[in-house]
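Hi support team,

I've been running sequence recovery on a batch of backbones for a student project. Most finish fine, but this one hangs at about 90% for roughly twenty minutes before it completes. I'm not sure whether the input is malformed or the queue is just slow. I've pasted the structure tokens below so you can try to reproduce it. Let me know if you need the job ID as well.

Thanks,
M.K.
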């Protein structure tokens, strides 16, 4: 199965005239290939996708001229991207990074917000203005939540600034790594609004401290990588951006080598259990494993662990 997948990727790359290239981060030696699923074509304006390892997809925010600030197109494409990766059998783990931009993300693109202001100026009725806002906020919320809804584990790799919407984004990821120069800021109160696309809901759960979460959200103060690691927002800090991407890809590659039924079932239950009782979580995993424990993945993994031979190979989902 793996040999067939590699063969398909190589043939697709040759047909498209896209040879193996090097990661666009300076000094990186990670080879990458363009992503070409048998059933899906990924073409985005604000995102760049590649496959640094088999079954691993690297999603890069790709607005370097705007410091990866979120405009409406990026919000839309993030939601589409993770929704499609959720169903893509050639994807088992995802790395999310800021690519070659100076910062992971500068947050909301204020130029885009100014365009929205002009659009609102053409509407007189406050009820109709509110209806427009409702639709936009829901779109942006669903975009961030698409990382959480995607069954594939998402490893966020943060360098330099991660501001505003960036904090919303990474708190919806499963695992967060950063480089030592990373810093974070829940910026929304400084532009006269309350964060409304996930930080207020997810950050307290991620770091396990209502006190610290509220301090960060009320004050909009910057906090650096050491504090982010100490409070649990970040699980590992790397010396350089190159080391960060390499470490994130290595982790994603390890995850992609495990049973996709097991890894994705684990994520599904952990996300479900965040806002359900322990018993509800136990009930859900019991119902899932009624089927999953009969799968070939379980048998292959058990046999491989007993024989201590080659790693088991798992079929696509």
């Amino acid at each position: 199965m793996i040999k067939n997948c590699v063969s398909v990727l190589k043939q697709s790359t040759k047909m498209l005239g896209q040879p193996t290239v090097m990661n666009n981060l300076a000094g990186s030696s990670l080879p990458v290939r363009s992503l070409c699923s048998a059933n899906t074509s990924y073409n985005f304006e604000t995102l760049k996708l590649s496959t640094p390892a088999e079954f691993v997809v690297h999603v890069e925010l790709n607005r370097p001229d705007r410091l990866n600030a979120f405009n409406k197109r990026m919000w839309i494409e993030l939601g589409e991207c993770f929704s499609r990766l959720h169903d893509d059998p050639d994807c088992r783990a995802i790395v999310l990074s800021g690519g070659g931009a100076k910062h992971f993300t500068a947050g909301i693109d204020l130029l885009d917000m100014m365009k929205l202001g002009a659009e609102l100026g053409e509407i007189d009725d406050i009820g109709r203005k509110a209806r427009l806002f409702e639709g936009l906020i829901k779109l942006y919320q669903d975009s961030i939540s698409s990382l959480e809804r995607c069954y594939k584990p998402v490893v966020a790799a943060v360098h330099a600034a991660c501001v505003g919407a960036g904090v919303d984004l990474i708190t919806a990821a499963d695992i967060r790594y950063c480089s030592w120069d990373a810093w974070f800021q829940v910026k929304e109160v400084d532009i006269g609004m309350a964060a409304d696309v996930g930080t207020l809901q997810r950050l307290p759960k991620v770091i396990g401290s209502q006190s610290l979460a509220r301090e960060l959200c009320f004050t909009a103060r910057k906090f650096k990588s050491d504090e982010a690691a100490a409070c649990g927002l970040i699980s590992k800090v790397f010396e350089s951006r190159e080391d960060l991407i390499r470490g994130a890809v290595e982790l994603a590659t390890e995850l992609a080598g495990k049973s996709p039924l097991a890894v994705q079932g684990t994520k599904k239950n952990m996300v479900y259990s965040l806002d359900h009782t322990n018993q509800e979580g136990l009930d859900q995993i019991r119902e899932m494993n009624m089927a999953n424990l009969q799968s070939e993945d379980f048998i292959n993994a058990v046999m491989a662990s007993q024989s201590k031979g080659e790693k088991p190979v798992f079929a696509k989902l």
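--
Follow-up from support: It reproduced on our side and the slowdown came from queue contention, not your input. Confidence is low (pLDDT under 50) at residues 1-33. No action needed from you.
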